[in-house]
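Practice problem: predict the structure.
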Amino acid sequence: MRSRLATRSARLVLTAVAAVALTTTASATVFAADGRSNAHTAQKSCGTLDLTYKVTEETQAGGYFLVTAKAKPGITCYLEGTIPSAAFGSSPDSQASPAEQAVSDTIKLSGSTTAYAGISPKSTNTNYGKELGQLIIAVSGDEAHPVTFKLPRTVLVDEPITTNWHADAADAVPFPN
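Answer:
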């Protein structure tokens, strides 16, 4: 009889430990690291190195660089509709600020799905600024792994701005305020 009680007690303890473990795991998938509820926590957020990039120069809105991002083969990830981290060179005043007031929709990147962001080197209407020849890009939150592009020419940089990530390139035109 004693061994049967001990076995029941052991099962109850194991069940309690398993319940605590499951609760802890469930909590980790429901709440983000900052404690806020996050519907995308179970989905993989894109990191800078999960994506391939292409940068093209556009003339609309006074001239800007259109960044095209796609997931690398075999990767499916989610790109939040916030701004990319972008700078023209390593100077602190070459960091791009948001051109938009709101967050756009999250984009699921996989296969040929593309996300776009527009980065303008100059949001001022002056002849002032620094001449810089590179664009550094990272996914916000993953600034430790930036990607650097040598621009085809130096550009005048003064208070640069960037749009959020968008699913349509037409939405990624950075209009200065």
